[in-house]
């Protein structure tokens, strides 16, 4: 099988699994326990938090471990909005992940927040000038994703954060897809909150983290034993936190070489697909895009039908985000980027990473040509 769905999830790296193992077996203590087993778990958790904080340019006390990207996004958006001393207005984008969009909608329905959406261009990027024109110091929160999960476009997050900082409105960025590829240094980016998830970069599913800058008030969503400095009650998943820290260390050490290698692979793949498949269009930004992301619209075919053909040929990819997989609704990201619904339904996304090879992508490009050809001939 050629796995080209790394944006949906990645396998756990062997080193990560090995680092986690002791905390699932011999050192299984609860970090809140005062005996030696508990203390060992607490030390491992503290070490993991300090390492994650280093990648974020943060203090350890600004890092909250969560059950993944969805929870980190929920905690950021709802927690900051409900903890905010002023305002009832959130500015976001129409291309966010559902974890952000649905959190905003919850705040609208249950807490009377007004939600405004920045426009995006045909490549799925926002215009910082629009944020500058629309943002005021009475606003509560800005939430703009770092990189999009469907089309791979990277947002000018540092520029947006500078605009928000000038009027003292906190800015959150969903860095779930950026993690592993782009710097997560929240201080350098100037963001007040940043969320990411382990399973996109070789840590297990079900772990993530949220950075929130120290002075930003955060209302917890989970109430209970007061773990994570009260920001997120619940016995900590020590092994997963250890795994997340190591996955980040490994990704950071490999980032430059991997980004260069994978960008070259991606550009080769995109070129091949555009050459082989008539009327194929690359979606997302041609330059400001994640190294491992190649997404297309193939005129006149159903993206889902192409996926089935590709899987028969041993190539696994997706038609959009994993959350929307199997739905016959057009992608909200492509609609927001101005694609007509019938064209958005032709989308296919290929995402790859550390394990993808040139041979895989050459074989995949041939398979794409055959799959689109087969679906088109059936449609005629
Ligand atoms: N945000 C983005 C941009 C994502 O791509 C995803 C998952 O695909 C999430 C949030 C949710 O993360 P998780 O799967 O860890 O809940």
Automatic annotation (TrEMBL):
Its cofactor is pyridoxal 5'-phosphate. It catalyses: (sulfur carrier)-H + L-cysteine = (sulfur carrier)-SH + L-alanine. Transmembrane segments: none annotated. This is cysteine desulfurase. It comes from Subtercola vilae. Residues 2-361 form the Aminotransferase class V domain. Belongs to the class-V pyridoxal-phosphate-dependent aminotransferase family. NifS/IscS subfamily. One of its GO terms (molecular function) is cysteine desulfurase activity. It comes from the Bacteria. Its EC number is 2.8.1.7. Gene3D superfamilies: 1.10.260.50, Aspartate Aminotransferase, domain 1 (3.90.1150.10), Type I PLP-dependent aspartate aminotransferase-like (Major domain) (3.40.640.10). Keywords: Iron, Iron-sulfur, Metal-binding, Pyridoxal phosphate, Transferase. It holds the Pfam family Aminotran_5. InterPro entries: Aminotrans_V_dom, Aminotrans_V_PyrdxlP_BS, Cysteine_dSase, PyrdxlP-dep_Trfase, PyrdxlP-dep_Trfase_major, PyrdxlP-dep_Trfase_small.
């Amino acid at each position: 099988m050629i796995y080209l769905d790394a944006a949906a999830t990645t396998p756990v790296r062997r080193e990560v699994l090995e680092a986690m193992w002791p905390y699932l077996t011999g050192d299984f203590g609860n970090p809140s326990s005062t005996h030696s087993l508990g203390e060992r778990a607490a030390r491992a958790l503290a070490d993991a938090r300090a390492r994650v904080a280093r990648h974020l340019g943060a203090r350890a006390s600004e890092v909250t471990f969560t059950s993944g990207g969805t929870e980190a996004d929920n905690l950021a958006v709802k927690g900051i909005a409900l903890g905010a001393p002023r305002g009832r207005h959130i500015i976001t984008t129409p291309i966010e992940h559902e974890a952000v969009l649905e959190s905003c909608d919850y705040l609208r329905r249950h807490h009377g927040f007004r939600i405004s959406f920045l426009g995006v261009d045909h490549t799925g990027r926002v215009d910082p000038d629009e944020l500058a024109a629309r943002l005021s110091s009475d606003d509560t929160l800005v939430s703009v994703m770092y990189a999009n999960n469907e089309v791979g476009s990277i947002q000018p997050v540092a520029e947006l954060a500078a605009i928000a900082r000038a009027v003292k409105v906190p800015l959150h960025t969903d860095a779930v897809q950026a993690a592993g590829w782009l710097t997560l240094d929240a201080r350098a980016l100037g963001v007040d909150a940043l969320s990411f998830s382990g399973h996109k970069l070789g840590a297990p599913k079900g772990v993530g983290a949220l950075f929130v800058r120290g002075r930003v008030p955060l209302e917890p969503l989970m109430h209970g034993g007061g773990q994570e400095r009260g920001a997120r009650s619940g016995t900590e998943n020590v092994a997963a936190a250890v795994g997340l820290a190591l996955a980040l260390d490994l990704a950071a050490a490999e980032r430059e070489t991997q980004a260069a290698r994978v960008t070259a692979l991606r550009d080769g793949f995109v070129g091949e697909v555009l050459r082989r498949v008539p009327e194929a269009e690359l979606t997302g930004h041609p330059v400001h895009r994640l190294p491992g992301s190649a997404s297309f619209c193939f005129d006149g075919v159903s993206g889902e039908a192409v996926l089935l053909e590709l899987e028969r040929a041993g190539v696994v990819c997706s038609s959009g985000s994993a959350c929307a997989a199997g739905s016959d609704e057009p992608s909200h990201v492509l609609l927001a980027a101005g694609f007509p619904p019938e064209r958005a339904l032709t989308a296919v996304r290929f995402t790859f990473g550390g394990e993808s090879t040139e041979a895989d992508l050459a074989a995949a490009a041939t398979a794409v040509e055959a799959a689109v050809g087969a679906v088109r001939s059936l449609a005629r």
